[in-house]
Specification:
The chain is an alpha+beta fold and 471 residues long. It has a domain at 55-206: Bactericidal permeability-increasing protein, domain 1 (Super Roll), CATH 3.15.10. 25% of the residues lie in helices and 48% in strands. It contains 10 helices and 25 strands. It has helices at 2-23, 56-66, 79-82, 184-205, 208-218, 301-312, 378-387, 389-392, 396-403, 409-422; strands at 25-28, 41-55, 70-74, 85-91, 96-100, 103-117, 130-147, 153-166, 169-172, 175-178, 223-226, 231-242, 246-248, 251-266, 281-283, 291-300, 316-319, 324-336, 339-348, 350-363, 368-376, 406-407, 426-429, 432-448, 452-467. The strands form 5 sheets. Strands 1, 17, 18, 19, 20, 21 and 22 form a 7-stranded mixed sheet that branches. Strand 19 (339-348) and strand 20 (350-363) form a beta hairpin. The termini are far apart.
Length: 471
């Protein structure tokens, strides 16, 4: 008898608990762990063009400054195999350069003084002393300019004939006799001498490497592309290609393409690393000019919660042919790896908190942040299967997924304008400017930070680094 009395309180407790369980389902569930990716770095292959343009007049000025005055002097008649010739050669006026594609035509005006012991006996003349003469001519050259793998500019200049401006003559009595035919070897020698001078000066003045080296280093410094989102663009160059040097419209041109990766960093300036060394040059017929950068669109967790709350909080939903009612009391959001977790407070036929998890993505059609593959997290799913299967099978997931449409059109448009401004002659170093045109925009990754949901839109187009002046 005492034994039955002893167990009676436990029977009462079991009965009360059974009544509560049958009437109101309580969901006290542990949600997914809150965590966020520490670094947001996505890499895209890109090519930045560096159009090298040297005005022909600038090259002419440098060459004329270096090749000036007396160019050659032979003050002995005994050298060069006793050639019986003394000679002085001056530049008469400025050297000029004209370009025809890959070939450069160079004109060098000269004046020459010569003293020679002439033997004109075959012409019936007996001249035993020396005679002097002054004459003028223009030497013509063809030059082809290339660049080696070591970045050394290689100039190959060869003679292309000459033009007499004032022919060499000697005066004998009352007569002047042309001796141009006797000076063929002299002119050939001068063409060879001047060719060497031109090659040395062109190679020296067209020092492409130092300008590319400067741009190569400067482009590796992180560039702020969004102050609001603390977003930075980091370029890591990998290789360099060069089209051949050519002349066009009074300008010496070459197109250099630096291929590497661009990465968008969100949430702080990436650490500045040691510069990658300048790559070995590759000569190519054509340089690709595709450039890609990630644009940032962002919506804060608070704003996202506010938009969801407008659709759900304090609203009563009916289920199971209106036999069941649940009121949403609260909505909260947080990140768990690549997923967004929705924490919903419920009261009614279910009391407590449940958790839904899905992967956010950018919907290009309506320019919204949406959520895909939304489902109850594992703990919630197991609890609902035991206590409220009618809710697990309801349309609640679909309703939440349809409502998760967070507008980003304005933010994306602002990001487009921002990056266009940053690519409009952006100074990245002394005399070095970044210019670009972006044409296509497509959705990429979506990231979750402790404060917001961030969508990355890939912008593709062309980018150039312009060097204001080659000195």
């Amino acid at each position: 008898m005492k034994k039955n009395v002893l167990y009676q309180p436990y029977l009462v407790k079991f009965f009360v608990c059974l009544v509560i369980t049958q009437g109101c389902k309580t969901a006290n569930i542990k949600g997914p762990e809150e965590n966020y990716l520490e670094k947001v770095v996505k890499v895209h292959q890109s090519t930045i063009n560096i159009p090298i343009q040297v005005p022909m007049a600038q090259l002419e000025n440098k060459i004329n400054g270096a090749i000036n005055g007396l160019l050659y002097e032979d003050s002995s008649m005994k050298d060069n195999g006793n050639d019986n010739l003394m000679i002085k050669v001056w530049k008469r006026s400025d050297i000029s350069i004209q370009a025809e594609g890959e070939l450069f035509k160079i004109n060098v005006p000269l004046k020459v003084w010569a003293r020679a012991a002439l033997d004109l006996s075959e012409y019936g003349l007996n001249i035993g002393d020396t005679k002097e003469t002054n004459f003028e001519l223009n030497l013509n050259f063809i030059t082809k300019i290339g660049v080696g793998e070591d970045w050394q500019v290689v100039s190959q200049t060869s003679g292309n004939g000459f033009e007499w401006i004032k022919k060499p003559k000697i005066k004998i009595g009352f007569f002047e006799i042309s001796v141009a035919s006797f000076l063929g070897d002299v002119i050939d020698h001068q063409q060879e001498e001047v060719s060497n001078m031109l090659d040395q000066q062109i190679s020296r003045e067209l020092d492409i490497k130092k300008h590319v080296q400067k741009a190569w280093n400067q482009m590796q410094d992180p560039m702020l592309v969004s102050k609001e989102h603390d977003a930075w663009m980091k370029i890591t160059p990998q290789d360099v290609k060069l089209t051949g040097l050519y002349g066009q419209g009074g300008v010496v041109k070459a197109n250099i393409g630096i291929t590497g990766t661009t990465a968008t960093h969100v949430g702080g300036r990436p650490a500045k690393a040691a510069y990658e060394p300048l790559a070995q040059l590759q000569v190519s017929d054509q340089v690709n000019n595709d450039f890609t950068i990630g644009l940032i669109g962002e919506i804060t967790h608070e704003r996202a919660k506010q938009l969801l709350a407008e659709n759900f909080v304090n609203k009563t939903l009916t289920f199971n042919n209106e036999k069941k009612e649940v009121t949403i009391t609260s909505i909260d959001l947080y990140g768990s790896g690549e997923n967004i977790v929705i924490q919903a407070g419920l009261k009614g036929d279910i009391d407590g908190v449940i958790y839904l998890s899905g992967q956010p993505y950018y919907n290009e059609e309506d320019q919204t942040l949406s959520i895909g593959n939304l489902d109850y997290d594992l703990n919630t799913k197991n609890r609902l299967a035991k206590t409220a299967s009618w809710f697990a099978k309801s349309r609640f997931l679909k309703q939440m997924e349809d409502a998760f449409k967070l507008p980003l059109g304005k933010e994306i448009e602002e990001a487009k304008n921002m990056i266009r401004n940053n690519f409009d002659h952006q100074k990245i170093g002394e005399g070095i400017f970044l210019d670009g045109k972006l044409r296509d925009f497509s959705p990429s990754e979506v990231y979750i930070t402790p404060q917001s949901i961030v969508a990355v839109i890939l912008a593709t187009g062309q980018a150039e680094i312009n060097i204001s002046e080659l000195k």
